[in-house]
Amino acid sequence: MSQKLEIRAFFFNAKTDYLPYYKNFNITMDDDATAKDLLIEVQAKNENFSFPKQKLVMRINGLVVEAKQSIGSIVEKLGTTLQIDPVNSYRSNNGLKINDNDFLQSYALLEPYASEADLKYYKTLYALHYASETENFDRAYIGDAILILAHKMINAGSEHTEAILEAITSADSGLMDCEYENNLFNAQDHTETINALKAMANPEPEPSLCSQIIARFSKKEKEEEKPSTPIERKFITIENLEEKQVAHYAGLASHDEMHALISKMGMTGIHFSRAHKLSGLSIFEDNEELALKKAAKTLLDAYDSGVEVLIVEDFSVFNMFLENFSKIERTAGRKMIGLELICAKDFNAQVSAVAA
Q: What is the pLDDT of residues 49-62, one digit of tens each?
């Protein structure tokens, strides 16, 4: 089967261009053709389009795609309107060709403790390095790939565990700035690996004998106390909800069911690009500035998409947004007047009351 594709391709030559630009192409490709074949077709239509012959990875509609990926699978996941970018636009020298010195600069952090086999494995993580979400907020970030290598080396029994952990945490932007997100076309979830590394780098201190005794008596006293009345939380309601444009911020969760409810209640549902991205909750204590940048990008994306009411699925994220809204606005450099936040539980309660 063949696919008629609408392509928006990235152009930039550091020797001749001041800014990057895009050109549009209509191209027909067979399902079994590859992403590399697509680039060849674009180049055939415009010889100024450039891409590397080795280590070929690219972004298509924001996801990092490798050269051998089939057109059929790309269309199935992303549709027939495709934007092609370098894996890292600001490192572009000529089209999709980038200065990738940062990849081995990150490896240098662990090179003193690594073997040839470790280097060989690290090179297989090239696409993962450039799929790092944190790098979108801090260009000094060392990349997810070097963290995955560090975990592998430690798990293999390296005698340099402490030095490895020190290397990846003492970098300008390292382990503690990582809130792992998957920007690869072919999904890879390394959340548990990153969390394991963080636990190694910041282990919970062993309680002293004295503190254990105190804790034991405190626990006994609490058990003997009468149960206290739980603090009631004031439920949030939105005035004229049915007249407003509503979106659902789900983080990594699915939100099809919530949008079905929005539609059922006759509200205008809005989809925005960061509806499934993380917003800094897990790194807030370690790097509040970075967390606020992520939160600001999410809320601004919703706001600029026309959202008037944002339903936040995760209650902890909802609280972070609510308690730090002024800081988030300062980080964004803009006021988000008219944007109302409501947690999913309160939204469900309000629409249920209306339906009743």
A: 999 999 999 999 99
